[in-house]
Amino acid sequence: MNEFILFFKKILDYICVKKCVACSELLEFDYDGFLCPKCAEEWDEAKRTVCDRCFKMHSKCRCSFGRQYVDGMRHLALYDHTDRDWVVNKIVYALKKSNADDVFEFVAREMIDNLIDKNTLDNAVFAGIPRSPKSVRKYGYDHAKKLAKKLAEITGCEYIDALGHRGGEAEQKTLNKSQRALNAKENCYLKDKAIPKINGKTVFLVDDIATTGAMTGICAEVLHKNGASKVFCLLAAKNKLQKKT
Ligand SMILES: [Zn+2]
Ligand SMILES: [Zn+2]
């Protein structure tokens, strides 16, 4: 490579800042991939670890939280709240806080490659599990809906802004199990305009992480009761604490 090209490439590197979606390390502008080599290795390892109930790789695990209306719950890897440096945690944080398009594209593509049965896409729509208005104000966007939109865009399916949150202030993570169920039931609702669009459809319900799956269960219930034929939940990660299936 001659000096001029090298110089030009350096300028391009500077302008087109490309970062690892997990650790934010700067990458060469023509670097092929969303993760730096170290994070890519850790991410592959995270996907290869097995579920401690079904002993399948996490991306192959279909253990649900026993939610009656959820036809399947699928996740890419395990979130570990005890390890701040775990690559899965970094990716979940990036979804929640960075609002960078690369992060959403990376997770959406991982979900499409690992979690979605392509035959189901013919009749599928995507929707996000709604955040509370307080959370949307705090972060400036609803990351589950943004991820659902990205999945719809890449697969060519329709995104539906189907579910709303009534704005109860209690955060799911601060409540116990029965309070979570009640809080989810009080807050989640289906938007009227979405009803004809979900009728007879497979709905992929998207979220970043599930702890008990209370909100997922309620969302799936309202979708099923209003005509959805199947409801599959797609998660970036499942919480390590969750043992029950
Ligand atoms: Zn990295
Ligand atoms: Zn499992």
Describe the structure.
The structure is a single chain. The protein is α/β, with parallel strands linked by helices and 245 residues long. It has one domain: Rossmann fold (3-Layer(aba) Sandwich), CATH 3.40.50.2020. 40% of the residues lie in helices and 18% in strands. It is built from 9 helices and 9 strands. The protein has a 5-stranded parallel beta sheet with strand order 3-9-8-4-5. It has a two-stranded antiparallel sheet with strand order 1-2. A two-stranded antiparallel sheet has the order 6-7. β8, α9 and β9 form a beta-alpha-beta unit. α4 crosses α6 and α7 packs parallel to α9. The longest helix is centred in the middle third of the chain and has 14 residues. The radius of gyration is 19 Å and the shape is globular. The mean pLDDT is 89. Bound molecules: zinc ion (ZN) (2 copies). The site of one zinc ion (ZN) has 8 residues, from α2.
Decide which structural class fits the backbone: alpha/beta
Order of H and E elements: HEEHEHHEHHEEHEHEHE
Instruction: Determine the mean pLDDT.
Output: 89
**Which regions are unreliable across 5 or more consecutive residues at pLDDT < 50?**
none
Relative helix content: 25-40%
| Top-tier CATH class | Alpha Beta
Please report which band the strand proportion falls in: under 5%, 5-15%, 15-25%, 25-35%, 35-45% or over 45%: 15-25%
Rg (C-alpha, Å): 19 Å
Number of domains: 1
User: Which CATH architecture is right?
Assistant: 3-Layer(aba) Sandwich
